[in-house]
Amino acid sequence: MSQQLDELLEFHWMMDMLQSVDVGIVVLDRNFAIQVWNGFMESHSGLLPSDVRDKSLFSLYPSIKEDWFKQKCKPVFELKTRAFMTWEQRPYLFKFPNYRPITGSESFMYQNITLAPLKSATGMVDYISMMIYDMTDVAAGKKQFEALQVRVSEDEERIQTR
């Protein structure tokens, strides 16, 4: 086989992996126009990659505060470092419904977000990737644990006051 065919086959399976991984992957350019929108994002948003490509993240999701998000992305573009957002700081960036409504107690998906620079061959960062992790089970478990702690504490107080 030729090297070009090998590279094409490798590109194909890598793209298949990108589409099927259980993590949201969005690639944004410096103008915050969406360049990549994987299967996770399509499944949870209901928007096809062709619906979002080259569109502004902020026009599609006006609930994302533009100034705040640009400030979060600034070190990613300029310093080529990662940035993180956790569900404890902000429950979600994209308000996706919880896709496990029968077993899940939460109405929306809690998310952790990682912003990472995508360096070109010249070392410039013209694109960043955003990885969206579903943390709903973790958040629900922590909330249940905290509620249980409160109940146990209240029960202990009642026992001591008798």
From TrEMBL:
UniProt xrefs under CDD domains: PAS
GO biological process, one term: regulation of DNA-templated transcription
Pfam families (alphabetical): PAS
Entry-linked InterPro entries: PAS, PAS-like_dom_sf, PAS_fold
Domain PAS: 12-78
Protein name listed in UniProt: PAS domain-containing protein
Organism of this sequence: Alteromonas profundi
